[in-house]
Amino acid sequence: MFKFKCSQKVYDIGGVKVGGAPWENPPVLIGSIFYHKHKIVKDEKSGEFDKNTAEELIKTVEDISNKTKLPAMLDVVIASPNAAIKYLDFVSNTTKMPILVDALSTDAMGVAFKHVRDVGLLDRVVFNSLNAKSKDDEFKLLQEYGIKASVLLLYTERVVDVDIRMKNLELLLEKSKVYGIEKILVDTFVIDVPSLSAAMKTLLEIKSRYGLPCGAGAHNAISSQRKSFKERFGLEGTKACELASNLATIVMGADFLLYGPIETAKEVFPAVYTIYTSYRYLGRRKDLLIEI
């Protein structure tokens, strides 16, 4: 268990606290809905979807979140401008959970942000995400519509390089300050198995140096190569690998976890609960903590 030298920042997003020491606030678990090829989506362009099944999935997350006392957010993937309002209205009316607006184009961003502002959802949303290759137009959209919270994704083609991730963060922090982004969640970027270890090392570096809330889409370590894992280990083995990759970041003190498809909440929440509960007890024993 790590104790970080730097004071740890804690942000309130829609009533959910994210950040702090590993035992201070429970990690926030974020599942994706309306993602590419999600079975409940009938038409990505028009935003038509199975509302009954979508509601069941969201209620399942709420239920397991209540049982484990682990906070949840929803990553709402918006593939087109036409889908933006439909998805956001449905999710915001179905649950009080904070929402990550995962808009996949600037057109979708504009429609989504305007709607978020117009209906009074600004305090409940986080943009997912900005990276070092994001154009100024994207930053300006956040500023124009008053989006104050964003995930900063430390994307790099040099997937095992920690230094480039840190340089990307410095660039993004400078631009975030210019464009008025006040609540920052850092996604240390996982795209495959080799990148997972670099992402975890980066997480420790950032929390030690900046104290910012950090996490990752750790399931990508497996999902990006799911076919080969499935051929080698079968479906159950692949699920075990995905769960292991998600838990790895929690063990290292992640403040949030983008655990992948919302359907996996039933497995992820109890597994994270086990680790966090253990860490809470360890956190009481200050003499056992490793300062970094």
UniProtKB/TrEMBL annotation:
Q: Name one GO molecular function term.
A: methyltransferase activity
State the superkingdom. Archaea
Q: Which GO terms describe its biological process?
A: methylation; one-carbon metabolic process
UniProt entry keywords in alphabetical sequence: Methyltransferase, Transferase
Q: Which EC numbers characterise this protein's activity in its record?
A: 2.1.1.86
Entry keyword Methyltransferase: yes
**Coiled-coil ranges (or none):** none
Can you tell me which family this protein belongs to? Belongs to the MtrH family.
The name of this protein is: Tetrahydromethanopterin S-methyltransferase subunit H
Species of origin reads Ignisphaera aggregans
Q: What is the lineage of its organism?
A: Archaea, Thermoproteota, Thermoprotei, Desulfurococcales, Desulfurococcaceae
